[in-house]
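Internal tracking record. Fields below are filled automatically when a chain is submitted to the structure queue. Please do not edit lines marked as system-generated. If the sequence contains nonstandard residues, flag them in the REMARKS field before resubmitting.
Queue: standard
Priority: normal
Entity type: single polypeptide chain
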Amino acid sequence: MAKITAAQGAGGERMQEFIREFVLKELDHDFGEIPLAALDDAAIIDGIAFTTDSYTVKPLFFPGGDIGTLAVSGTVNDLSVMGARPLALSCAMIIQEGFSAEDLHKIMKSLSSTAKKAGVRIVTGDTKVVEKGAADGLFITTSGIGKRSEHLDHNIKSVRENRRFEWNWPNDSAVGPGDKILISGTIGNHGVALLSFREGYGFETSIKSDAAPLNSLIAEGLKVGGITAMKDPTRGGVANLLNEWADKSKVGIKVREEDLPFDDAVISACEMLGIDPLEVGNEGKVVIAVVPELAESVLKAISKSPEGRKARIIGEASSDIRGVMMETHTGGKRVVEPPVGDPVPRIC
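SYSTEM-GENERATED OUTPUT FOLLOWS
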């Protein structure tokens, strides 16, 4: 019989195939305003956003954060990109017997401080301790609920003033021709920092994880309006995100290589390792699709946030092409393929 492989949990095409084969085929997936079948970052059920994530990052501590920072940030961001205001989280832990009590205290402090930064509370949870060898130190699962943002009605109204728009929430299927594509900052920092630290390459001295909650930044964008879709480029990176949008929204997406924001150290690391930085996961960035009339205003608004200082417009959606196309530095064009999976395993 076929066996489950690591690639099926690493984002990209293999994970999409896994979800279709093992999840959507077996579960009732058409319930809700944004249902499971949409495969967005959160479901919308009776006006409430709900999401869940499990974190198996290795190592547990890395430059710029730890599994606690990651667990809160990831769930807060998955709610926020749907246009929800995060309210509360759960936290479940599977701990291997013999795990360091000192390390657990550090991780719990990170969970608490990141939740306070995001303005959310951890209100329930569960703890299991398993025998040695049954888990890799510590795994954390966080789930979150959120209410419709107080700025979302204004945002949707402003979209509809500029073009026909059938949705009441931003989502992966709502990108329209002409929408500008923004990113809140540099690409690939989390995955490269984690891989470098794990394998001892040395780039972690200049590259730190970007893991951070982005609900405040996203709220500033919604206040301006015009946002049709938002998503955080985690496993599979920006390449996977843009291909998901192109597929679900039935549009093409053009990006300009010269406008893609990278730290020089990330480019150097990726060149040395032979990996595409567009496929590397991020944990503190958001990609935003905006109607063209309001794109510069949204960019200005999110750039005022500490997490958005390097935000840029990187391209636009188009009905003239299919898939994702990059205009290169030299004036040529290349197709940005959907990755099989994230080239850096266990980044979240």
